[in-house]
């Protein structure tokens, strides 16, 4: 059927040639749309752009270049093949520079035309796939997250896949990696987004009050219970219940939580009445949950009930250039909030921030940028205004162009061995690791427990130093 055939718009004002070209394309399985005027072609392009356009440059009412410019400027999903006479080959080459895929010089035969159109169609299909990939898997931000690194693209894909279901998501990651942001992203991408999102930190509530916080209580059930109170589970009815630091929960309460998950019913503290609620569970911990199970601190049956969709969040040190993406976003946000002039980081500061391991992850980065903005006011962040520990010698030394001179109190490295500059030793260690990994830099970086981008930056620095 015609709707399954690839469409080609043929823009040619010479009727005899247009009929010949149309027959060639019809025989090769294309649906052909024709236009003999520029305005007619533009109307069809703007209404329903075909994947391939055969465009004659010499038209009665306008130049084909004008149509090409419209296609390029409006980013229409079309591969343009320019049709030209012998005398206008230079113009056709210029058209390709402006975005045309290829050109055909008149006269041309059936095989040449169909081969060129096939190539243009494949090119356009590939371009569409690349654009779709970039839209879906090359994002710089997503649902509250900021980050373009491959580990974060994987996080985004899991969130998108898991959010529409009711399956429990178990988020793991170091403190400060954004586990609550992740839980909220799951909720906002789910059909429950219009219902409540209730977060409960199991480590921040005294153990003797935890059951009441989750399930609620009735008046007089314990000292201080002056009235009936709904718990987090009831408040989250129809929405999402996020249990942060769930491995901190007492074993007795874990059994009650398991029963609640299995039955969908709960009892308030001091009440004999069962209540039915509909919640989607998301939980998180900064520990290894399976290790907690093996240590007897977390129920195995609860673990397998909750650990349906594991979602590990990467630490900031493994996210490469995301550090700068986040830092610049925070700098601009805080500068605007505090009415300061900050715009960016100078090159030395960029290097320090990329080399620092960020044990406190995104939360630590937020604190560092807030400290800089509140206590200073200038356009560029330089190393002299970095707060501890980023202003320590260990991190600033890596940005120094020259090697530090040995100090009199420096310890001996071995009998008869000279003290060598730190950057030389570092270079040898990194190059040795790369050689042992057969040139595989990501593998070498993993063994050295640093980011691959750190190795690439240092290699570039060594090459630049040699070329000077």
UniProtKB/TrEMBL annotation:
The keyword Phosphoprotein applies. Keywords: ATP-binding, DNA-binding, Nucleotide-binding, Phosphoprotein, Transcription, Transcription regulation, Two-component regulatory system. Residues 7-121 form the Response regulatory domain. Transmembrane segments: none annotated. Pfam families: AAA_lid_14, HTH_8, Response_reg, Sigma54_activat. It comes from the Bacteria. The modification 4-aspartylphosphate is found at residue 56. InterPro entries: AAA+_ATPase (IPR003593), AAA_lid_NorR (IPR058031), CheY-like_superfamily (IPR011006), Homeodomain-like_sf (IPR009057), HTH_Fis (IPR002197), P-loop_NTPase (IPR027417), Sig_transdc_resp-reg_receiver (IPR001789), Sigma_54_int (IPR002078). This is Sigma-54-dependent Fis family transcriptional regulator.
């Amino acid at each position: 059927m015609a709707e399954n055939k690839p469409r080609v718009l043929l823009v040619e004002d010479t009727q005899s040639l247009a009929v010949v070209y149309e027959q060639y394309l019809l025989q090769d399985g294309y649906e052909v749309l024709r236009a003999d005027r520029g305005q007619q072609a533009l109307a069809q392009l703007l209404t329903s752009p075909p994947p391939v356009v055969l465009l004659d440059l010499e038209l009665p009412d306008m130049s084909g270049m004008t149509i090409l410019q419209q296609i390029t400027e409006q980013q229409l999903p079309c591969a343009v093949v320019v049709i030209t006479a012998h005398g206008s080959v230079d113009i056709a080459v210029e058209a390709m520079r402006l975005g045309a895929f290829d050109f055909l010089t008149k006269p041309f035969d059936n095989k040449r035309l169909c081969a060129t159109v096939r190539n243009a169609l494949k090119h356009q299909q590939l371009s569409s796939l690349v654009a779709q990939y970039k839209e879906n898997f090359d994002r710089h931000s997503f649902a509250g997250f900021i980050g373009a690194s491959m580990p974060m693209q994987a996080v985004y894909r899991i969130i998108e896949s898991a959010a529409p279901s009711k399956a429990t998501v178990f988020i793991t990651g170091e403190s400060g990696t954004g586990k609550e942001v992740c839980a909220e992203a799951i909720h906002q991408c789910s059909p429950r987004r219009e219902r409540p999102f209730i977060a409960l930190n199991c480590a921040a509530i005294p153990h003797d009050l935890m059951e009441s916080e989750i399930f609620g209580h009735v008046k007089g059930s314990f000292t201080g219970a002056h009235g009936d109170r709904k718990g987090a589970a009831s408040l989250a009815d129809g929405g999402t219940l996020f249990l942060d630091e769930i491995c901190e929960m007492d074993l007795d309460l874990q059994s009650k939580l398991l029963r609640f998950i299995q039955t969908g019913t709960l009892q308030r503290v001091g009440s004999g009445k069962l209540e039915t609620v509909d919640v989607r569970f998301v939980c998180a911990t900064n520990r290894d949950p399976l290790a907690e199970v093996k240590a007897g601190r977390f129920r195995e049956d609860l673990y397998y009930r909750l650990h349906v969709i594991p979602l590990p969040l990467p630490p900031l040190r493994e996210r490469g250039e995301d550090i700068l993406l986040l830092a610049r976003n925070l700098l601009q946000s805080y500068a605007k909030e505090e009415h300061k002039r900050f715009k960016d980081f100078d090159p030395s500061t960029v290097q320090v921030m990329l080399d620092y391991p960020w044990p406190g992850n995104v939360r630590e980065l937020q604190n560092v940028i807030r400290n800089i903005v509140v206590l200073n006011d200038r356009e560029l962040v330089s190393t002299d205004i970095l707060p501890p520990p980023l202003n320590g010698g260990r991190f600033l030394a890596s940005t120094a162009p020259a090697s530090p001179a040995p100090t009199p109190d420096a310890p001996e490295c071995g009998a008869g061995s000279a003290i060598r500059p730190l950057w030389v030793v570092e270079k040898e260690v990194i190059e040795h690791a790369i050689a042992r990994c057969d040139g595989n830099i990501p593998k070498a970086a993993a063994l050295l427990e640093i980011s691959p981008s750190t190795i690439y930056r240092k290699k570039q620095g060594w090459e630049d130093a040699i070329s000077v």
